[in-house]
Amino acid sequence: MKRALLMIVTALVASVVLAPPTTASTVDACTYPADILNLSNWKETLPIGGDGSPTEIKQPRLDTYAIAPWFRVNSTCDGVRFRAAVDGVTTSGSSYPRSELREMTGGGSSNASWSSTSGTHTMTVDLAFTHRPNDKPHVVGAQIHDSGDDVTVFRLEGNSLYVTNGDDTHYKLVTSYPIGTRFTAKYVVSGGKTKVYYNGTLQTTISRSYSGAYFKTGAYTQANCTNSAPCDSTNYGEVTVYGVTVSHS
Length: 249
Known about the structure:
globular; 9% helix; seven-stranded antiparallel sheet; Jelly Rolls; nine-stranded antiparallel sheet
């Protein structure tokens, strides 16, 4: 009897010693988007809040913030999901909803604002378009904005992936984009020229001087309740960002 009891106790001890580390540490490691992306110089604009005044999350709150389904880590703990439904709250300057990071400075205390003619400004984003809205299936995943408007964006329009020069000129990157496919978008701005790279290859150069500029990434859904149905949270654009880096020199 004593021998059998000793064997049971020994087996229990061994199972505790040999068991893998608790999964709690894994869960804790990806609770917040800031656990995956360095968000020290960003703020997040959400598609929720009051009319014309969407909720903004700034540092230091951003480091411990997530909200499903608009801004959260993905199930594999290697990316951040940004979602904006067609019925989402929009900023005063746009009729489209966004769940999007806006570049900041000073540890998130001030809006970034730089010039295309002074210094070198680079953003590299590892991202994937993971959902399109109905009827008008357009979503922006990365962009440069100046003091007045978009300078250039990476935009999925149905199955075609474009980079734009303002609102009018489109440069097609991919004719048939498989939803969920990761790619690298990169901007390098210097001397009045904006070089645009797709998966490490230079695609086009935009010759344009602008100021008050800043980088953005996330999901900027280019559809709303006037052109896409149903008008509810089941109809949305979504982008997963796996990494983003910004440098200025």
